[in-house]
Amino acid sequence: MKNESKKLSYIEGWLSIIVNVLLFGLKYWAGIVTGSIAIIADAWHTLTDSISSIIVLIGVKVSSKPADKNHPFGHGRAELIASLIIGILFAIVAFSFIQQSIEKLKNREAVVFGTFAIVVTIISIVSKEALAQFAFWAGKKTGSTILKADAWHHRSDAISSVIILVGIFLGKYFWWIDGVLGIIVALLIFYATFEIFRDSINPMLGTSPDKNLIQKVEHICQRINSNTQAHHFHIHEYGNHTELTFHIYLPNEICLDEAHKISEQIEVKIRKNLAIESTIHMEPFESE
C-alpha cells in the first residue's frame, strides 16, 4: 500500500473511533432518558462504526505488507476480507434492531422525546455525514475498498439519525413511530450491507476489465507497434495491486527477439501509465 493511502486510512480509522465512541455515549444517554429503542439502536449502530474502524486499521496494516514467498501478489485482499467482516457486523446489528422494534410494536409502547434527544440527534447527523464525506474522499483518492465500506457505515448512521429526527417531531402524534423507525433504520443498514458485500465479493470472484481500461491498453499497444492487436483480457485485483493478462497478435515475420521487445515495452508503458502489472501472451496472425 502506498504511503499516502496508508496515512489517510490510519487518519480516517482513528478519527472514526474517537468520534463514534463520543457519539455512542451521547446517543445511549439520550435513549435511556427517553426510553427510545430507535435511539438506543442507533447508539449501538454508532458503536459498531468504532468496531468497523478498528477492522479498517487492522486491514490496512495487513494489506500494506509486501509480497512474500507465500503471497507473491501481496496482501491487498486483506482489505476485501475486512470489508466483508464490516458487512457481517452490519447484518447482525440490523437483525437485532428489527427484533427489538417488532417487540416494541407488539407491546404498543409509546415514547416521549425531549429537547436533549433533538440536540443529540442533530450533532450525530452533522458528525456522521462529515466522517462519511472524509471517508468517501479518502477512498476515492486511494482506491481503497475498505475506506468506501467504512464511509457507507458512516452514511447509513447519518441517514438513520435523520429519520429518527423526523420521528421525534412526529412522536407525539403516533405511538408506534419509535418501533417503525427502528425497522426503517434496520432496512437501511441491510441495504448498506448489500453494497459492501457486492463491492468486496466481486473483485474476489473476479470481474471483467472495464471497457475504458481495455481501450487504454489497446491504445498503448498501437503506439508501441501499429500492427499489434490486443485481445483476451483478464484482470486480477489484490487491493492496491492489479495484475492484467492479455494476448497480442503480431505479424508472422517478426522474430522472437523483436516480439519480446515489443511485449516488454508494452508492459513497461502499462506499469508507468496505469500502475498495473501485465503479463502478455504473444500470438502470430493466422496465415491467409
Description of the molecule:
With 288 residues, the protein is mainly alpha-helical. It is elongated. The chain folds into two domains: 3-205, Alpha-lytic protease prodomain-like, CATH 1.20.1510.10; 211-284, Cation efflux protein, cytoplasmic domain (Alpha-Beta Plaits), CATH 3.30.70. It has helices spanning 3-34, 37-63, 78-106, 115-142, 145-170, 177-205, 211-224, 256-274; strands spanning 229-238, 241-250, 277-284. The mean pLDDT is 81. Helix 8 (256-274) links the parallel strand 2 and strand 3. Helix 2 runs antiparallel to helix 3 (78-106) and helix 2 (37-63) runs parallel beside helix 6.
Layout of SSEs?
Blueprint (H helix, E strand, L loop, with lengths): L2 H32 L2 H27 L14 H29 L8 H28 L2 H26 L6 H29 L5 H14 L4 E10 L2 E10 L5 H19 L2 E8 L4
Parallel strand pairs: 2-3
Antiparallel strand pairs: 1-2
